[in-house]
């Protein structure tokens, strides 16, 4: 089931969202198998009194799910080689764009630092 797979990917960690603290790969798999969706997992976590999971925790799974279902990509018929022209990196614009697309800002900063280091070699 694609929806369950996407929810598993989100639980495992993706650039679009944080994760639920304390849920690793094995637990994520078992929870999806048992509950079928993140909503039901959260309900179970909250019902059992373990904790409350909120978007304040950086776990905005709805936005992440939307981006998996409706990625912001260039349609194949509009694609051209010009999309691959190389220019000097504009890290500020790249950061704003990625964070605007709900990428995790810490991961973006780390990746851009690595790119900058590689570019300056």
Automatic annotation (TrEMBL):
<keyword id="KW-0234">DNA repair</keyword>
<keyword id="KW-0460">Magnesium</keyword>
<keyword id="KW-0496">Mitochondrion</keyword>
<keyword id="KW-0479">Metal-binding</keyword>
<keyword id="KW-0227">DNA damage</keyword>
<keyword id="KW-0597">Phosphoprotein</keyword>
<dbReference type="GO" id="GO:0003677">
    <property type="term" value="F:DNA binding"/>
</dbReference>
<keyword id="KW-0539">Nucleus</keyword>
<keyword id="KW-0235">DNA replication</keyword>
<keyword id="KW-0255">Endonuclease</keyword>
<comment type="similarity">
    <text>Belongs to the XPG/RAD2 endonuclease family. FEN1 subfamily.</text>
</comment>
<keyword id="KW-0378">Hydrolase</keyword>
<dbReference type="InterPro" id="IPR006084">
    <property type="entry name" value="XPG/Rad2"/>
</dbReference>
<dbReference type="GO" id="GO:0046872">
    <property type="term" value="F:metal ion binding"/>
</dbReference>
<dbReference type="InterPro" id="IPR008918">
    <property type="entry name" value="HhH2"/>
</dbReference>
<dbReference type="InterPro" id="IPR036279">
    <property type="entry name" value="5-3_exonuclease_C_sf"/>
</dbReference>
<keyword id="KW-0540">Nuclease</keyword>
<keyword id="KW-0269">Exonuclease</keyword>
<dbReference type="GO" id="GO:0006281">
    <property type="term" value="P:DNA repair"/>
</dbReference>
<protein>
    <recommendedName>
        <fullName>Exonuclease 1</fullName>
    </recommendedName>
</protein>
<dbReference type="GO" id="GO:0017108">
    <property type="term" value="F:5'-flap endonuclease activity"/>
</dbReference>
<dbReference type="GO" id="GO:0008409">
    <property type="term" value="F:5'-3' exonuclease activity"/>
</dbReference>
<dbReference type="GO" id="GO:0006260">
    <property type="term" value="P:DNA replication"/>
</dbReference>
């Amino acid at each position: 089931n694609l929806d369950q797979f996407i929810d598993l990917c989100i639980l495992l960690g993706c650039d679009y969202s944080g994760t639920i603290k304390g849920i690793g790969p094995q637990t994520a798999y078992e929870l999806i198998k048992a509950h079928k969706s993140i909503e039901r997992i959260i309900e179970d976590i909250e019902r059992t009194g373990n904790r409350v999971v909120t978007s304040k925790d950086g776990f905005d799974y709805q936005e992440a799910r939307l981006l998996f279902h409706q990625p912001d990509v260039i349609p194949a018929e509009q694609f051209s080689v010009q999309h691959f022209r190389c220019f000097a990196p504009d890290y500020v614009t790249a950061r704003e764009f990625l964070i605007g697309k709900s990428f995790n800002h810490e991961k973006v900063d780390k990746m851009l630092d690595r790119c900058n280091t590689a570019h300056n070699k």
